[in-house]
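Worked example 3 (structure in, sequence out).
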């Protein structure tokens, strides 16, 4: 009965937060990132037909029924959805007994919502695409009988080094992603679109202001902005980034500060949030000071990926802190010298590390062995070195395996596109601590919204940081406590 209650409440929670899910929660919206969509759209199914083969036998053989594997993704733009479709077609051609079918949804939560309903109807997909901040939610998801909906990739692979001829790439996944998605010693899902925050710099404008290197620290940003805004042809602002809680989480990681208890939910279930920590106050006070000085440009919209990126490309600001997922986009579209650098940090505090964003691929539990092996083979094919490298080059998301990094280096890709290496280098520089891994937190989407709204109040209504964050702390704690009452055991 308790399992059924959890299932029903989980379904209700998903329905309530669907509109709140934003990109990347960490990916940008410039390339029509699905998670930034705040409206629920009907899913558009794209079925990839498997290549038909005819057996060379003396008599005509009866057609063999293919094994369908549904892969539901939260991308709808032509380039990223097209990549998934192309990989499915290639896999189907190489494994004609299988038919991987890709279906596009408007957002991560739309995918999850549909998967929950499909489990209830008895026709779930094999694989779904879900974002990093909802990892705790995915781990807590159960069916009507109280059984986990998802299966650990580690458990499913069971030590194999190849599946249906496809080499297993799990051991090659880069540390930042591997460590984020490893819970209780088990690697639960296969990372796909993984990013971090970087800063894009208009070096033509900065050089004109006498700044020869991208600013590395908060103090460097202030110095650069004073120089930029003193130019005769100064832009309307100096720096911008979206008002999104993900940037707060990044700076907490940089400062070695936790967002939640139990080591950010890494050594147990997080039952407390820390929205009034020294690291939180330091960052928000600095952000407000940039805004008050006219250096920071706020577009007036929460989670405004498009508005901030457009301001940078239009040279309305000199610097943009953003998701590395659009590195290729900025390289292709900037009409000035665009240089990527690490996200600026507080130079008065020892640097610990930036964390990941993006999403991963979860495998539904309960498939027959033959179907599950097909799904696992596709997962590993999807992120083999050539495919992971191609995905990185198409988008700017990091190459998810070290083998893909090595391939790109051997081909001279980073010599041709040095901006593309910055995100990987930043993640590699992080220490493996609970702070730099990021939080596993119940109702994380709702808590992110609490933080984002508080920041808007601080920037737009000139509210005192400590006073406003005290209110946010109470609201976020209530949200987490209510979640834990149901799912905390």
């Amino acid at each position: 009965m308790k399992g059924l209650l959890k299932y029903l409440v989980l379904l209700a929670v998903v329905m309530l937060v669907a509109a709140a899910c934003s990109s990347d929660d960490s990916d940008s919206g410039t390339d029509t990132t699905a998670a930034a969509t705040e409206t629920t759209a009907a899913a558009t199914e794209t079925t990839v037909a498997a290549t038909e083969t005819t057996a060379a036998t003396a008599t005509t053989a009866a057609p063999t029924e293919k094994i369908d594997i549904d892969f539901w993704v939260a991308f709808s733009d032509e380039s990223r959805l097209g990549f998934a479709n192309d990989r499915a077609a290639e896999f189907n051609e190489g494994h004609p007994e299988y038919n991987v079918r890709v279906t596009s949804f408007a957002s991560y939560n739309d995918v999850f919502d549909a998967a929950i309903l499909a489990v209830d109807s008895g026709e779930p997909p094999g694989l779904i695409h879900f974002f990093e901040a909802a990892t705790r939610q995915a781990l807590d998801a159960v069916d009507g009988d109280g059984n986990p909906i998802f299966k650990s990739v580690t458990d499913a692979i069971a030590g194999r080094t190849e599946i249906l001829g496809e080499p297993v790439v799990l051991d090659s996944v880069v540390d930042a992603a591997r460590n984020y998605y490893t819970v209780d010693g088990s690697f639960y899902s296969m990372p796909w679109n993984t990013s971090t925050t970087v800063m894009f710099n208009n070096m033509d404008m900065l050089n004109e202001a006498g700044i020869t290197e991208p600013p590395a620290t908060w103090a460097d940003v202030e110095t650069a902005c004073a120089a930029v805004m003193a130019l005769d042809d100064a832009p309307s602002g100096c720096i911008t980034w979206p008002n999104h809680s993900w940037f707060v989480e990044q700076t907490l990681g940089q400062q070695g500060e936790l967002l939640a208890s139990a080591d950010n939910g890494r050594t147990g279930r997080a039952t407390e949030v820390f929205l009034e920590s020294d690291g939180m106050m330091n960052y928000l006070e600095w952000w407000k000071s940039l805004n008050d000085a006219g250096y920071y440009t706020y577009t007036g919209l929460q989670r405004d990926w498009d508005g901030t990126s457009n301001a940078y490309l239009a040279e309305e600001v000199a610097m943009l802190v953003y998701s590395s997922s659009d590195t290729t986009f900025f390289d292709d579209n900037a009409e000035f010298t665009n240089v990527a650098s690490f996200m600026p940090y507080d130079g008065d505090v020892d640097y610990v590390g930036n964390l990941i964003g993006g999403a991963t691929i979860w495998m539904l539990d309960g498939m027959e062995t033959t179907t599950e092996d097909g799904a696992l083979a596709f997962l590993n094919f999807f992120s083999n070195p050539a495919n992971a490298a191609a995905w990185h080059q198409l988008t700017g998301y990091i190459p998810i395996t070290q083998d893909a990094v090595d391939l790109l280096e051997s081909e001279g890709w980073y010599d041709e596109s040095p901006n593309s290496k910055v995100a990987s280098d930043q993640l590699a520089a992080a220490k493996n601590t609970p702070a730099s891994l990021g939080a596993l937190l119940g109702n994380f989407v709702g808590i992110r919204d609490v933080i984002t709204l508080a920041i808007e109040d601080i920037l737009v209504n000139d509210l005192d940081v400590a006073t406003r964050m005290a209110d946010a702390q109470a609201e976020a704690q209530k949200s987490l406590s209510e979640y834990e009452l149901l799912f905390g055991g």
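Notes: The chain has two domains: 2-195+356-425, 197-355+437-487. Residues 1-5, 12-25, 28-62 have pLDDT under 50 and may be disordered.
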